[in-house]
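so my prof wants the structure for this chain in the tokens format not the other one, which i didnt know existed until like an hour ago. anyway here's the sequence
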Amino acid sequence: MTSQRRGANTVVLVAVLVGVLAVGLVAWYFVSDVFRTKVDATAEQWTRWTPENIARDPVNYLNFVEAQTKASLERLKADRISIAQTRARLETMKEKAQERVRAGQQTLLRLKEAYEKAAEAKSWPAMYEGQSKTEDWFKTNIVSLFGQMQSQQAIIERVDGGLKTLDAQVSKILKAEADAAQQLAEIATNRELLSVQKITDDVKNRLVSMRAAVQGVVAVAGESESVLTLDQLVARSEATVSETAFEKALQSIK
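here's what i got, hopefully its the right format
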């Protein structure tokens, strides 16, 4: 029953990983000679370990999966560090955008007050911060500043989305690390079993079921989509300065 449950869990894990990895890794496979060579070499190694070969040479099979699992743990650790660094940069970007929005709101309120006072009195040019300004100057700057604030707000929203993506990736990495730790414990257990008895159907099934689980950990550790770049984030967030009518911008200032 334990073997059947482990086999079912393995099938689910592999199915999820295949869906996640398919798009990004296939593209990278064809554009990177180094990556393609590594993938081909690893695939060839896994192909060698058929159930029959595992039964013939269980000790070296355990050595192989242990090395694969430990290497994956190192890559997962590096991914977590990279994600933490990216999170820090995103949070800094968000704080700066929030500061700009707050400053823009305050300035827009002052501009609106000065404009409406002059418009009501029909007194142009009007004074703003000790300088004489025309009606067109007020309109141009209110529309421009309002558009810039919208752009900064879009950055904040994109950063929030990016942070959620990073959180999801960290959860995936933590799950893979837990799976790897479980597999290392399983390897140690199977080594002990092999030292006291010949390979039986039960031990053979345990070793074979381990194969897919370890491949799943290796696959997560090899993902290339875990880190967002600030350039990509800003590019998606950039918007042209709003051409909204002056009246609409003015009404939005509260």
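also thought this was worth mentioning. The longest strand covers residues 126-128.
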